Amino acid sequence: MKRLASILLSLTMALSLAACGEGGLNLNPGGGSGEPGLKKGFVGDTLSTEWFDFTVSDAYSCAQYGSYTAGAGNKLVVAAISLKNTCGQSVDMWGDDFAILWDSEDGATLALPAGISDDQFPDEYILKINETRAGTAVYEVPEDFRDFVIAFQEIYEDTENPDNLDGVEGNTFFVSFTAEEK
Predict the structure, then answer these.
(1) What is the DSSP letter of 35?
(2) Which residues of 103-117 are buried (b: 16+ CB within 10 A; e: fewer)?
(3) How far apart are CA 74 and CA 108, in angstroms?
(4) With CB atoms counted within 10 Å of each terminal CB, which end of the chain scores lower, N or C?
(5) What is the per-residue pLDDT for 165?
(6) Domain assignments of the chain as residue spans, ordered by start
(7) Cα 97 from Cα 152, distance rounded (Å)
(8) Cβ pair 62, 181 in contact under 8 A
(9) Whole-model pTM?
């Protein structure tokens, strides 16, 4: 849980700082010169992390998905995501590794737990060597927003400071889209 809170806080801070630049939102200021940076894409683009490639192939909004109905003042955003392990070892994954952000002071949340629909990513799973896995991430968001970013941040084990349970931050990946109603 501490890991998730740290990731969410980091992603929210990164998005809010990126929005401060002239000309609006710049999600790729440094471009990846060996330093941790921000990488951006759109629905259909494949982004490469240290451990896997991922593609958000579809993202839309709706009031109900599977057995879950959004609460008053909210809607659901459903994102189809595919992953391909590219690192040569199994990777521990969680259903909430991909957060969603929107333009608001409190604009971030993690995916809803598995069990809403059979096509959701499990809450915990292993992405095996060279495995490709596709699934759905479902988010409950305020109904008055339409533009979103799905974000993933690399977090490495801190080998220099084993007591640091939050790890060391790597690159952050943003996939921007407008969630149309389906």
Answers:
(1) S
(2) eeeebbbbbbebebe
(3) 13
(4) N
(5) 87
(6) 2-181
(7) 6
(8) yes
(9) 0.80
